[in-house]
Structures are given as structure tokens and as C-alpha cells.
Design a protein that fits this description.
The chain has 99 residues and is α+β, with helices and mostly antiparallel strands. It has 2 helices and 4 strands. The protein has a 4-stranded antiparallel barrel with strand order 1-2-3-4. The longest helix has 13 residues.
Length: 99
């Protein structure tokens, strides 16, 4: 049981796969559009329950309880070696060789 007042993450279905726009790629159309929100749990619940949270900005959001004390993780993809070469090309082209 996750107690009222805990910091949690929920998941909400924004569009079902049937509601997706016809022009989106096939692999995108095959899954629903989901939104994940973090906030304070307004009533005690178990993982998988439908709950309401209050976000840090004060909005109330309803969704499926997914995680207790979620981390803020950001990832911009895997390392791309070619970008190091691009950086050097830009430095040469702009005359910025002071590094």
C-alpha cells in the first residue's frame, strides 16, 4: 500500500491506438499515446490502481499508479562518434581553434 501524500508517478492514456492520427508511422499507430505525470498521491492506493495526484504546479491528474518515489531521468540517446568530427569541422570553419 502506498500512502496518501507520497510522491508517485502515474500513467494516463491520451489517445488509444484506434484514435491515433492516420498519417503517423505504423509502429507508432500500434501503441497508445501515453502521458506520465509525477505528483503527490491524494489517497492511499496500490500499484496498478487508478488514482488522482496533485502535481507540483497544482494540477490534478488521474491515471494508473506506476511508481513510488520516481526519479527524474533524462537521456538524449547513445553516443554518436560522428558528432565529434562535426564539432572539429565547425571549429575549423568558424576559426575557433583556441581549444
Amino acid at each position: 500500500m502506498i500512502l496518501k501524500g507520497s510522491f508517485v508517478e502515474i500513467e494516463t492514456v491520451i489517445l488509444t491506438k484506434e484514435e491515433r492520427a492516420p498519417q503517423v508511422p505504423v509502429d507508432t499507430k500500434s501503441v497508445p499515446l501515453l502521458m506520465r505525470s509525477k505528483g503527490i498521491l491524494l489517497n492511499s492506493a496500490k500499484l496498478g490502481d487508478e488514482v488522482v495526484i496533485k502535481t507540483i504546479t497544482g494540477r490534478k491528474e488521474k491515471g494508473i499508479l506506476k511508481e513510488l518515489n520516481p526519479a527524474y531521468l533524462h537521456h538524449y540517446g547513445n553516443f554518436v562518434a560522428e558528432l565529434l568530427k562535426v564539432k572539429e569541422i565547425i571549429k575549423v570553419e568558424t576559426g575557433d581553434l583556441n581549444e
